[in-house]
Amino acid sequence: MNWDKLKEVVSWGQYLHWAQLNVDRWICPEDHTESESIAVAYQFFASMYVVIEGWKQLQIEDSKIDHVLSNNKEGVELLRRARNAVYHFQKEIHGEKMSGFANDLGRDDWIIRLYHEFVRFLGEYPRKVYPFDEWKEEFVGQFYDMLGWKPQFK
């Protein structure tokens, strides 16, 4: 087992956790004003780009995730622009960088599919990489303890 890769995946999983916190707030708005709903949505979009960026940098492979990414290259670029719009000051409210992605989002639910595939991957990861049956569940528990959360997937 590659311990350095394991640590990198744990680090990547932290960013996925942050995306998860944002998507939960986006999907369950609980009395958000329109402005708050927009802010929460863009926080999710920005955090998903960081997760994608980490995925690519770590050169992790998963056929389902790679399929969604390869079929949505324009959307990934729009996510990058949304991330930049969130974390770099824009002189106009809801400028072109933000509205470009928001307009595209309504066409397809690919970003939610991608999010769920990332969660699935992270949920399966520790069992796939641990080479022994003995102590596997203990290892899985320690992995999630290191991560600080346990991905819930179907």
Describe this structure in words.
The chain has 154 residues and is an all-alpha fold. The protein has one domain. 75% of the residues lie in helices and 0% in strands. It has helices at 3-27, 34-58, 63-70, 73-87, 96-105, 110-129, 136-147. The mean pLDDT is 86.
Which short descriptors sum up this protein?
154 residues, mainly alpha, 7 helices, 75% helix, elongated
Short description:
This protein is mainly α and 154 residues long.
Low-confidence stretches: none
How much beta, percentage-wise? under 5%
* End-to-end CA span: 26 Å
The percent range for helix content is: over 70%
Largest sheet data: none
Give the CA-based shape.
elongated
The chain-level structural class is mainly alpha
Protein name: HEPN AbiU2-like domain-containing protein
